[in-house]
Every structure is written in structure tokens, then in C-alpha cells.
């Protein structure tokens, strides 16, 4: 199905509406920050696996340090979600987490699961932005 040009954008039955009373993007940024906190906690819990199962490349202290550093970066990035570079930071952290497969396979599997979560969050953000542009959010007509 082909997309319509911008000038033919189908509006909702009530028209374009006004700016929403509550910014939906603020809520999505909160979800992103919460996801980074959760992912950091999961990475820290993965340290128990790294310490007990020696299946990674390099010495255990290096694997431990890498996973710990990525988790700390995730905690720090959770507070930078208003920054313009937040999207690049978020995806960069996912790549760093995926590289953690060399520390331990379990870390890589967790990273793949969270990459799926991040894909879904960005998909939802795109849908909300599209609905805002078309005037389909209920708060645009109150």
C-alpha cells in the first residue's frame, strides 16, 4: 500500500485538533529511561553468570569490567533522554550490549531481547507521532 503525500494526509473526523494538553513524547521518553534502567539492572544481574561460567573470551576480570561499564553507561544514559543525541546513544548502547556476547553468551542473548524491546519502543513512538500529526489523539480535542 503506497503512502499518501503530505498534502493529502488523512485527518481524523474532528480535524487536526490542537497541541495535546500532555506531551505524549514525555511519556515515551520516560518509558525509554525506564527501559535503560531495567536493562542496566539485568546486565548487573548477568554479572553473576559471568563470574560463575567461564565461557567468554579473555580473563574473567575483563569480562566483568566490560559488562559493568556497559551497565553504568545505561544508567547514565537513562537521564539523558531529552538530549537530541538520545536515539544514537540508545542504539549505541544496544550495540555495546550485543558485543557483550564475547564476555558471555547469556549477555548477548539478553542484548538481543532488549534490542527487540527497543525496536518496539521506537515503533510505538513513530505511531504516536503519526497519530499526533493526523489529529487522532483524544487529548488534541479536549
Structure notes:
This protein is an all-alpha fold and about 140 residues long. It has one domain (about 25-130). About 65% of the residues lie in helices and about 0% in strands. It has four helices and no strands. It has helices spanning about 25-50, 60-75, 85-100, 105-135. α1 packs antiparallel against α4 (about 105-135) and α2 (about 60-75) packs antiparallel against α3 (about 85-100). It is elongated, with a radius of gyration of 20 Å. The model has no long low-confidence stretch (mean pLDDT about 85).
**Please, how many helices?**
4
Shape: elongated
Main beta-sheet annotation: none
Number of domains: 1
Could you estimate the helical fraction of the residues in percent? 55-70%
- How far apart the termini lie comes to 32 Å
Strand content: under 5%
Question: For the residues shown, what is the average pLDDT?
Answer: 86
- Unreliable stretches covering 5 or more consecutive residues: none
Helix-strand pattern, N to C? HHHH
Gyration radius, in Å: 20 Å
Structural class: mainly alpha
The overall strand count is 0
